[in-house]
Specification:
The protein is globular. The chain is of the alpha/beta class. The protein has five helices and ten strands, in the order βββαβαβαββαβαββ. Helix 1 runs parallel beside helix 2 and helix 4 packs parallel to helix 5. The strands form two sheets. The chain has a seven-stranded mixed beta sheet with strand order 6-5-4-7-8-10-9, sandwiched between helices. A three-stranded mixed beta sheet has the order 1-2-3. The chain has a single domain, classed as 3-Layer(aba) Sandwich (Rossmann fold). The termini are far apart.
Length: 200
């Protein structure tokens, strides 16, 4: 495999613009990405945890709509789009991150645009089969009602950006929102929670 490719998840790779992705494992995707200061370049364990989970869930079942909250570079939204999500939205309160996410999304030359803005998670209503929020504990707690309101019945919410000691408070907040814990994973001391809304 070309040394210019960096593995973000078992079947997801990133590389600089202009690099030709060669020698990818079967079923893997490779996304070009501008260098920059926005969070989500793939170096942090939480990005890798979320990337693997988004990729796995989107390959396991069709995702009609996906939302990436605190998108940073936009890589998680782009993984969902590459895996067939019909509608993808991404939000960030940092204007520099919004600009970076748009620039990176344009590198894909994909027919379907990603809607990238500073909107709150529930801006589009409860339409998302998959929501991912890789941000810190405090904003996760503040956004818990809006994140829950963005989920469609049966939808999955992926949360990361925190350590094990912060899990109980986060779980309590999202259980109050009607979600249940489906799975938990960790990498280098960081946690990923997958929560689910029941089907109606």
């Amino acid at each position: 495999m070309a040394p210019e490719l960096r593995r973000l998840a078992p079947r997801v790779y990133v590389h600089a613009p202009g690099v030709v992705a060669r020698g990818l494992p079967a079923g893997a995707i490779a996304l070009a990405q501008h260098p920059g200061a926005a969070f989500g370049d793939g170096s942090h364990p939480t990005t890798r945890l979320c990337a693997g989970a988004v990729d796995l869930l989107a390959r396991a079942a069709a995702v009609p709509a996906a939302l990436d909250v605190g998108t940073g570079t936009g890589v998680l939204a782009r993984i969902a789009r590459a895996r067939g999500a019909a509608f993808v939205a991404a939000t960030d309160i940092d204007p520099a991150a919004v600009s970076a996410a748009r620039a990176n999304a344009d590198l894909d030359h994909h027919a379907a645009a990603i809607e990238i803005a500073a909107h709150p998670p529930d801006h589009w209503g409860p339409r998302f089969a998959l929501v991912v929020a890789n941000i810190l504990e405090r904003p996760l707690l503040e956004l818990a009602p809006a994140l829950c309101a963005a989920l469609a019945p049966g939808g999955a919410l992926l949360l990361s950006g925190f350590t094990a000691v912060q899990v109980p408070a986060l779980l309590a907040a999202f259980v109050r929102g009607g979600l249940g814990l489906a799975s938990q994973a960790s990498l280098d001391g960081w946690i990923l929670l997958q929560l689910r809304r029941g089907s109606r």
